Amino acid sequence: MSKAPAMDGRVCLRRARSADIPAMSAIRLAVRENVLSDPARVTPQMYEDYLDRAGRGWVAEVDGVLAAFCYADRAQASIWALFVSPPYEGRGLGKALLALAVAWLFDLGHERITLGTGPGTRADGFYAAQGWTRIAGDGREIAYRLDRHGQSAGAATSPRAGLSA
To answer: Residue 68: phi, psi to the nearest 5?
Structure first.
């Protein structure tokens, strides 16, 4: 049985670790939108690879409970994953984690970051509200981009002050 989320819990943003993978996978499978048609498509090894080899991952904990996570893909300059556990939605965790990933990718020297999400979802509106530019998609997924020089004030804010090692 998991803890019920506190209304005003202590938030800790930190780098993701191997020990976080089961909780991240559970969050990924618990979302209401952007549901995987085949949960086996995202393997524990993929989570492991994105911890540092293929990218970087961060988590948000609320009172010690893993509540959200984000992964950035180093080679593709993209956001590979950003998910918030349903009981923790609306607290700014996704925005804070996205800012960490964006800052890291721009610090690597990338000029543009991309991501994909489902059309008409809350994520679709979230990325637009964060200053991302919606670009063509295939109908099942839409793409967004964020250019280094065109980023929104929220994405440009350095989130490092609240990051725990």
So the answer is: -160, 160
